[in-house]
Amino acid sequence: MWLGANDAADPGSADPLAAAQGVPLERYRANLVAVGRGVRTRLGPATPLVVVGPPPVCDVGYRAARGDGGAAGPPSRSDARTARYEAAAREAAEALSAEGSGGAPRVVFVGLREAFGAGPAGGSGAEARAGAPDPSLFDDGLHLSPAGQATAAEAVWAAVAPLVAARRGRGGGGGAREPPGWRELAEAKVRAGTGPDDDG
Question: 38 burial class (0-12, 13-18, 19+ CB within 10 angstroms)?
Answer without folding.
Answer: exposed
